[in-house]
Design goal:
This protein is an alpha/beta fold. It has 11 helices and 11 strands. The strands form 2 sheets. It has a 7-stranded mixed beta sheet, sandwiched between helices.
């Protein structure tokens, strides 16, 4: 099928999303049937305004640079496609003779591709729609993990690990530290911070995730037990944790365009602030909270090499699926091999991926709901790569020995006056 190609980026960015974009462009340039390669400027929202960037005209330097650039180079959008938008989308697709349609994104993005592709089919317009996975939340069904997760997890792990060293050493000043990760419906990122822990006394001590209901009294009891044992407490919480009745711990009432709760937005406070308040009111402790939000999506200095390679490979594989005549699929990662091995990639029907978020399996969470299991750590560790190991002083305390003996002084030759002028 001859025609032009369109690619867009949706939702939050990642450290590696532009590698997927580079993969789509570079592979598409090798396909004779594909003419122009267009990019949506600010997602489907910009596309309906005919804001298309000519990606085929970009220099080799720009294309190479995409693979080491964070953010969303095309500009992103969180526009929720309505039925009323579909005729306009089809109109612009026809105007630019677009037959290959790609979106790089998460659950809601896959829903957009599915709806556009189905509408075009119902109108007799042949279009091959393929999804390229992207989300730091790691909550897409059908794939072993998602591009963007490993780099974001690594960034969070390093933050928690280094904050833990600081908090351990400052425990006589601050008795606790709370670190909040993003993750509206799933706790993959929060749970990954368990890899920061080398010894039992290291942080994090407690991890709270959306897959388990939050109970205030249990939280306070667990925190006090850790404090009594180590003299300080390191806590990680996912932004989406809720009470048993479904009320967000953040108390947020704000919603985005997809009717998702905006945790920490106007109308509520952050989860970390709420937990901080609970500990302070219950025990009078002094502590701090740390909220990274989108910072971990833009930390290219912490991008993981495997993550970059897989993101690029997903872009390449998306074009290959369309070349094969397939439509209505998302590229997946199998976890069985590393790129460029073709066994690293699979595919999943969009109707099995769209909208719903993939939670962590029960076997990945301990019975108390406060920490991931060894099974999860075994899943996560190969994705993250090696982590630094920090040293600490041995607890060898001096004993009084009576009179102090003077120590011999090493002879230091004094410079002559002329040489010091």
């Amino acid at each position: 099928m001859k025609g032009n190609l369109l690619v867009g980026q949706s939702g939050g960015p990642t450290s590696v999303i532009n590698s997927s974009l580079a993969g789509v462009i570079e592979k598409a340039k090798l396909v004779p049937e594909i003419g122009h390669i267009y990019g949506m400027n600010f997602g489907i929202e910009g596309f309906m305004q005919e804001r298309l960037i000519d990606l085929g005209a970009q220099s080799l330097e720009v294309l190479a640079g995409l693979r080491r650039t964070p953010g969303s180079a095309l500009g992103s959008s969180r526009h929720k496609v309505k039925d009323a938008d579909l005729p306009r989308i089809l109109e612009v697709l026809k105007k630019f003779d677009i037959r290959y349609f790609f979106l790089i994104g998460g659950n809601d993005t896959m829903d957009t591709i599915q709806r556009v592709e189905a509408y075009c089919r119902s109108q007799g317009y042949e279009l091959r729609g393929i999804g390229v996975p992207k989300t730091v939340d790691n909550d897409l069904f059908g794939t072993h993990h998602t591009p963007g997760f490993a780099s974001a997890a690594r960034s969070n792990i390093l933050n928690v690990k280094q904050a833990g060293v600081l908090s351990r050493d400052m425990q006589k000043v601050d008795q606790f530290v709370i670190y909040q990760t993003i993750g509206r419906d799933a706790g993959w990122l929060a749970a990954s911070t368990a890899l920061a822990k080398e010894n039992p006394e290291d942080g994090p001590h407690l991890i709270y995730i959306p897959e388990r209901p939050f109970f205030r009294d249990d939280f306070l009891t667990a925190a006090k037990k850790v404090y009594d044992t180590y003299g300080w407490v390191s806590i990680v919480c996912g932004e989406g944790i809720k009470y048993a009745d479904g009320t967000p711990v953040s108390a947020s009432q704000a919603k985005d365009r997809f009717n998702n709760t905006e945790f920490g937005a106007m109308g509520g406070s952050s989860v970390a602030m709420q937990l901080h308040r609970m500990l302070t009111e219950a025990y009078g402790w002094r502590g701090e909270f740390q909220i990274t939000e989108s910072l971990i999506m833009s930390a290219f200095d912490r991008a993981e090499a495997r993550d970059l390679a897989e993101a690029y490979g997903c872009g390449v594989r998306a074009v290959e699926l369309a070349q094969e005549g397939l439509t209505g699929y998302m590229v997946t990662l199998t976890g069985d091999a590393l790129p460029p091995d073709p066994r690293a990639f699979g595919k999943a029907p969009l109707n099995q991926v769209a909208i719903a978020a993939k939670p962590m399996p029960d076997s990945y969470i301990n019975n108390e709901g406060t920490f991931p299991t060894d099974e999860f750590l075994a899943y996560c560790r190969p994705l993250i790569g090696p982590l630094p190991s920090f040293t600490r002083l041995s607890p060898i305390f001096a004993q009084a020995t009576g009179s102090v003996q003077p120590q011999p002084q090493a002879h230091v030759q004094q410079p002559d006056k002329e040489s010091t002028r």
